[in-house]
């Protein structure tokens, strides 16, 4: 689905693409056009390396994952100029992420390492750093029915457990607890 004009543009840091349940939910939301995702080649390399080093995936399955992500989102990968990266003042290990946000005109960086992206480092580039929990809460607020539908679809399409929305939410709870509580409240109250 093509996102509507004005849809959030967000660079996803490697650390939010490593956990399978979170990655699945975020990328499904992007496929539905709820936000436009971006990342750099460096981010995808880091995802690959982390999955292999953590023994979460073999080299082959990590490679298949990266290829599938690139095939699904052919316009999401950006290459950044070294000269831009060298000028940035945020944490040196994450300057490539901010450079990707600048290059793609993304308003958000979605990361667990928000502290690596100080407000002073980001504000001059009109970029904010959010946790995945913050992004998912925003998507729930702005697109409630779409978010619920994608969670139902996610649960139904998984080959292994989780197989219910509640199971999907249990997996997401460690990465986005406030979002999970909000959607559980919403579902319980008949939303």
Structural topology:
Blueprint: E1 9-12, H1 14-17, H2 20-31, E2 36-40, H3 41-53, H4 59-72, E3 77-78, H5 82-87, H6 95-104, E4 108-110, H7 119-123, E5 128-130, H8 132-142, H9 144-157, H10 165-172, H11 177-188
Parallel strand pairs: 1-2, 1-4, 2-3, 4-5
Task: Write out key terms for the chains shown.
191 residues; alpha/beta; Rossmann fold; 2 domains; 5-stranded parallel beta sheet; 57% helix; 9% strand
Structure description:
- The protein is α/β, with parallel strands linked by helices.
- It has two domains: 9-131, Rossmann fold (3-Layer(aba) Sandwich), CATH 3.40.50; 136-188, no CATH class.
- Helices cover 57% and strands 9% of the residues.
- It is built from eleven helices and five strands.
- It has helices at 14-17, 20-31, 41-53, 59-72, 82-87, 95-104, 119-123, 132-142, 144-157, 165-172, 177-188, and strands spanning 9-12, 36-40, 77-78, 108-110, 128-130.
- A five-stranded parallel beta sheet has the order 3-2-1-4-5, sandwiched between helices.
- Strand 4 (108-110), helix 7 and strand 5 form a beta-alpha-beta unit.
- Helix 3 packs antiparallel against helix 4.
- It is globular.
- The two termini are 25 Å apart.
- The model has no long low-confidence stretch (mean pLDDT 91).
Shape, please? Answer: globular
Query: What's the CATH superfamily of the largest domain, by name?
Result: 5'-nuclease
Give me the secondary-structure category: alpha/beta
- How many alpha or pi helices? 11
Q: How confident overall, as mean pLDDT? A: 91
- Strand order in the sheet with the most strands: 3-2-1-4-5
Q: Order of SSEs, N→C?
A: EHHEHHEHHEHEHHHH
Instruction: State Rg.
Output: 16 Å
Major sheet details: 5 strands, parallel
